[in-house]
Design goal:
Largest sheet of chain A: 9 strands, mixed
Largest sheet of chain B: 7 strands, mixed
CATH superfamily of one domain in chain B: PurM-like C-terminal domain
Oligomer: heterodimer
Strand content of chain B: 15-25%
Catalytic activity (chain B): N(2)-formyl-N(1)-(5-phospho-beta-D-ribosyl)glycinamide + L-glutamine + ATP + H2O = 2-formamido-N(1)-(5-O-phospho-beta-D-ribosyl)acetamidine + L-glutamate + ADP + phosphate + H(+)
GO cellular component, one term (chain B): cytoplasm
Order of helices and strands of chain A: EHEEHEHEEEEHEEEH
Strand order of the largest sheet of chain A: 2-1-3-4-11-10-9-6-7
Distance between the termini of chain B: 57 Å
CATH class of one domain in chain B: Alpha Beta
Number of strands of chain A: 11
Keywords (chain B): ATP-binding, Cytoplasm, Ligase, Magnesium, Metal-binding, Nucleotide-binding, Purine biosynthesis
Structural class of chain A: alpha/beta
CATH topology of chain A: Rossmann fold
Distance between the termini of chain A: 9 Å
CATH superfamily of chain A: Class I glutamine amidotransferase (GATase) domain
Helix content of chain A: 10-25%
Subcellular location (chain B): Cytoplasm
Strand content of chain A: 15-25%
Structural class of chain B: alpha+beta
Number of domains of chain A: 1
Protein name (chain B): Phosphoribosylformylglycinamidine synthase subunit PurL
């Protein structure tokens, strides 16, 4: 799988993502500076976590106007696969490649903790490594992860199977109003969503930080294994 | 503006009459305004260590694995595989009281620069925090700001915050302590130093622009507070972690080439201290042309530019033929890059602005003749050991009180605001082990990191407290299975001009030195913060508790084999070390009997070393499933923390005869560990062979902590009480 990772000024989880991709796919991804204007021949583009442009103005808002984004839009229009994690998810909503927005966490504080994600739709390239209803652990680390969208959009996401991951308890219980189950207060406990064609995915937590048995767990591995199966075939 | 430059003005800059006379002798004339500013910051306590130097010199700083000890920007130790760990801890106490968010944030930024300026990628942050009494009305504001500031900066730069400590005590009501530590990794043959070389080589300024913030910050940090502390807000710097992140990446990119001759961050006293230190260490002169300095605001004077403590700036000496290559890197990262001067053979620092020479100072005497004081000391008689007072409440009540008290309550409310996982190498996060474990990229090595100090022990007996701080840090690293390598110290004390404070300082250093020698645990970097006092409107000075915070680093060959607190079901619990029931200065005495008295626990450095080496060997041999040292709150709290970490309960045997039961469970005896092992018999026999005291405590089982007398508390109840304090204190629902 040929993957590329976009680096904006202030991106800070690009090395984590590169490590995960290298570990699982066996190939080091291409690092793409935000001033570049061509993606080249890629199977997957990843927008990683961090604080692009310091998160000044709004998280992801300035990165959405970086030179590389025009090329990423074209890549999306051609049906390319794009994964945005954390700040990358915020860039995708700010670019309107995914619907909705990410507001301040409901508790108004930065949150860094392990959370549990329930796989809602296991038929996509991003989720096929799991079964629907599976629950896995992932660290989250963000100040602005409270997903929101209009009632119509939320209804469409639900109806079209575009909710990829939902926050839950370790046993898979989903409860929108419970801070233990839904730490940042996201609408319908949404942690990750898909574009209409199912090829652009954004999520707030960091599966890339749990891929290495040597530092504790491999809960995030199915995301990357599934992508390899889907995109290399 | 006409200002008369005289002893009176010098005094308002923090220089004494004697120091001003010395300045006049060196200069042979009346100094300019800018020159007076330069002298005053270089000779401030913060930059010159004038009160502490004679004592600091007594600390051990060498070991075969030490590459650079004190004197560089940070300490450097060899961790194997051709790699070095670079680390230091530094205080930002005064600014954090005046403006908690920015004070703490820029504390993190400053210590990061000390580490990456040496060529290391920062891989972990820790912070040791001391706040006022939780009941004091101002404490919540400081906690909130400091925690947000540390998170706001550390999270954005993408360096995981993996550990630290927090205490509350009324002695910090008007003077909280924020001690930030950064650890970085570099190849040991690619360490960058600050000594300038090469007459004619360009001096290059990179990073943020210079503004009027933080002027005279170093001097502010060298004086006690009075009731007008708030008026000093303009001396606090403002941080921009986004720029810092760019600066880290740009510097590391440039450091991968061989363009740099010398590099130094602009920390306290900004351009002045970086230029003076680089040229001074290299034995050359330096000429700065301030017209070229990137400026944030118009009409800045030479004095303002030389003393500004604007953040996120570095000074470098480059090989002249590589300047354009370096410029391209900084332009890519959209950072300022300016050639602001050159190295000369004059032996002077010369500062030119608008064609006028604003300062021309000989460097050698500025450094060599900096004041140094052997200040008068009074040594207080340490209190006597007390015999255990009667237990007024019983074991269960004490347990539930202690695990919910401010000093023992879960710190997860704080940790959960710090990104602890960025980097993808955090193997053990806060609360999971006695020291945080961070794997070193591209290897299996794990760094074991901790910060420790028990200020109430230091207040009662500074020498014992200094030794205990070092011993506890060593023990915390040992309990994970790692080998302790070296420490950085952050010495926070009151006004050194008061003999009783100076006595505390000297005694604490003596204790630290003894422990460092006994444990082969040298001091490789550090920072001194004095004048941590607040003068009330009535004129009474309140000093903080003496707080020699120790930041420590160890290494384990395989991070995945490190040991944490969480004990598995169906294991034996073994105590290693001897319990004498030390209740003097214990949390039990303070929280249950409302007394802070007696001598702190005895420190036996031979036993400390012997017991710790035994525990580490047992871990290496694979006999240990969980391990936790005994510290604040004593043995019962150690066990309760192991129960809370795992959710697995235990059944404890009756304590031995001869000691009051509460002294056994709540005494804060040193050099002790609780281990969960498959086979207590084998471990006890190994301990006997090694002449290490050990006894079986019980067995892990079920989901409640149970005592032989029938007491039973569930893990979930313990957790609930343990987690309750912070959200309630901060006025937030759980």
């Amino acid at each position: 799988m040929k993957a590329g990772i976009v680096v904006f000024p202030g991106t800070n989880r690009e090395r984590d993502m590169a490590h995960a991709l290298k570990l699982i796919t066996g190939h080091a991804p291409r690092m793409i500076w935000h001033h570049e204007t061509s993606l080249g021949d890629l199977d997957l583009v990843v927008l990683p976590g961090g604080f692009s442009f310091g998160d000044y103005l709004r998280s992801g808002a300035m990165a959405a106007h970086s030179p590389i984004m025009a090329e990423i839009r074209r890549f999306a229009e051609k049906g390319g696969h794009i994964l945005g994690v954390c700040n990358g998810f915020q860039v995708l909503t700010e670019s309107h490649l995914l619907p909705g927005a990410l507001l301040r966490n409901a508790g108004l504080r930065f949150l860094s903790q392990d959370c549990h994600l329930k796989v809602e739709n296991a038929t996509t390239p991003y989720t096929r490594g799991w079964k629907s209803g599976d629950v896995f652990r992932a660290p989250l680390a963000h100040g602005d992860g409270n997903y929101t969208a209009s009632p119509e959009t939320l209804q469409r996401l639900e109806g079209e199977g575009r909710v990829a991951f939902r926050y839950s308890t370790a046993s898979g219980h989903v409860s929108h109003d419970d801070r233990h189950a839904n730490p940042n207060g996201s609408a319908l406990s949404i942690a990750g969503i898909l574009s209409e064609n199912g090829r652009v995915c954004g999520l707030m937590p960091h599966p890339e930080n749990l891929v290495d048995p040597e530092i504790g767990a491999t809960d995030g591995v199915p995301l990357f294994k599934g992508l390899v199966e889907a995109l290399v075939a | 503006m006409t200002v008369t430059i005289d002893a009176k003005l010098a005094q308002s800059f923090g220089l004494t009459g004697g120091e001003y006379d010395k300045l006049l002798t060196i200069m042979g004339r009346t100094p300019s305004f800018a020159e007076l500013g330069i002298f005053s910051v270089m000779w401030s306590e913060h930059c010159s260590y004038k009160s502490s130097r004679v004592h600091l010199k007594t600390l051990p700083t060498k070991a075969p694995w030490v590459i650079h000890g004190p004197g560089e920007n940070a300490g450097v130790v060899d961790i194997g595989e051709g790699l070095a760990a670079i680390f230091k801890m530094e205080s930002h106490n005064h600014p954090s009281f005046i403006e908690p968010y920015q004070g703490a944030a820029t504390g993190v930024g400053g210590i990061l620069r000390d580490v990456f300026t040496m060529g290391a990628r920062p891989v972990a942050n820790l912070n040791a925090l001391r706040f006022g009494d939780a009941k004091h009305s101002g404490t919540r504001r400081v906690v909130d700001g400091v925690v947000r500031g540390i998170g706001g900066y550390g999270n954005c730069v993408g360096v995981p915050t993996v550990g630290g400590e927090v205490n509350f005590h009324k002695a910090y009501d008007g003077n909280p302590l924020v001690n930030a530590m950064t650890v970085g990794i570099a190849r040991k043959d690619k360490i960058f130093l600050s000594a300038a070389a090469g007459i004619g080589n360009p001096v290059v300024y990179v990073g943020s622009k210079t503004g009027r913030d933080g002027i005279h910050g170093a001097t502010m940090s060298s004086a006690e507070f009075d009731d007008k502390a708030a008026s000093k807000r303009p001396t606090v710097q403002v941080g921009d972690p986004f720029i810092e992140k760019l600066l880290i990446e740009a510097c590391l990119e440039l450091m991968a080439t061989d363009a740099i001759v010398a590099i130094q961050d602009m920390g306290a006293a900004g351009l002045t201290s970086s230029a003076v230190e680089m040229a001074g260490k290299g034995g050359v002169g330096i000429e700065l042309n301030l017209d070229a300095v990137p400026q944030r605001e118009p009409n800045m004077t030479a004095y303002e530019m030389m003393l500004s403590e604007s953040q996120e700036r570095m000074l470098m000496v480059l090989k002249p033929e590589r300047t354009e290559e370096a410029r391209r890197i900084f332009e890519k990262w959209e950072l300022d890059f300016a050639i602001v001067g050159k190295l000369t053979d004059s032996g002077h620092i010369t500062v030119i602005h608008n064609g006028v020479t604003e300062a021309n100072i000989p460097l050698a005497p500025l450094a060599d003749e900096a004041p140094i004081y052997n200040r008068p000391m009074v040594h207080a008689e340490p209190p006597r050991h007390i015999s255990p007072p009667a237990d007024p409440v019983g074991i269960e009540h004490a347990l539930l009180t202690l695990i919910g008290c401010p000093d023992l309550a879960s710190r997860s409310w704080i940790w959960n605001q710090y990104d602890g996982s960025v980097g993808g190498n955090t193997a053990r996060r806060p609360g999971a082990a006695d020291a945080a474990i961070v794997r070193v990229d591209g290897t299996r090595l794990g760094l074991a990191l901790t910060t420790d100090c028990t200020p109430r022990y230091c207040q009662a007996d500074p020498k014992a407290g200094g030794a205990q701080a070092v011993a506890e840090a060593w023990r915390n690293i040992t309990a994970t299975g790692a080998k302790p390598l070296a420490v950085t110290d952050n010495l926070n004390f009151g006004n050194p001009e008061r003999p009783e404070i100076m006595g505390q300082f000297a005694d604490a250093i003596k204790g630290m030195g003894d422990a460092c020698r006994a444990l082969d645990f040298p001091v490789v970097s550090g920072n001194v913060s004095l004048y941590n006092e607040t003068r009330s409107p009535t004129g009474l000075a309140q000093a903080i508790l003496p707080t020699p915070a120790i930041g420590a680093l160890g290494v384990i060959a395989d991070a995945s084999k490190s040991i944490g607190l969480a004990m598995p079901d169906n294991h034996d619990l073994v105590l290693v070390g001897e319990i004498r029931g030390e209740l003097g200065q214990s949390l039990w005495l303070r929280e249950i009997c409302h007394k802070e008295e007696g001598a702190p626990p005895r420190i036996d450095l031979v036993a400390e070393r012997h017991n710790g080496d035994f525990v580490r060997a047992q871990i290496e041999a694979g006999h240990v499933a969980a391990c936790h040292d005994i510290a604040d709150g004593g043995l019962m709290i150690t066990i309760a923390e192991m129960v809370m970490a795992s959710g697995v309960g235990c059944e404890l045997l009756a304590p031995p005869h001869g000691l009051p039961i509460h002294a056994f469970w709540y005494g804060e005896d040193q050099a002790c560990y609780v281990i969960a092992t498959k086979n207590a018999k084998a471990m006890l026999s190994a301990a006997e062979k090694a002449h290490v005291p050990a006894r079986k405590l019980g067995h892990s089982k079920g989901t409640s902590l149970k005592m032989a007398d029938g007491m039973s508390v569930s893990a979930s109840r313990l957790r609930e009480i343990n987690e309750a304090f912070f959200p309630k204190f901060m006025g937030e629902g759980a």
